[in-house]
Amino acid sequence: MSKFDIYNKDGVKILDSVGYLDVVMMLRNHPGITYRRVNEMEYGTVTFEGIEYELTDQAEMTSRLLPYRKNYFEVEHGDEYDFEMSAPALKDGKKYMVYWIFSEIKGQEPEDLSGYDYSVVNRVEIYE
For the chain, which residues make up each domain, given as ranges? Predict the structure, then answer.
């Protein structure tokens, strides 16, 4: 059975390890609270245009062709190309998708994508 921690609108934990029915009752009676499954991985937050978003999963490549001629398949080995990554996020109970544009040298790509600067967000879109 899953357990959840309850947070107030300021992100302060107010209840530890409650059950699902407790979460439902809290959501009905206290607007602005949030919850997180106990032991759920935290992916951090990013800020875009002064608004902070809580990432809910790791970033992944989108494989979208960017609208300018600097995509992976349009450059030669050793040339710089751009690529897009995205990750889902939450803000005030609404779902968003956060996007980043990164540059890399074709043929010199790192195996670990954690070295990029994820604080520089390209855009955020509401996710239905």
Answer: 1-40, 41-128
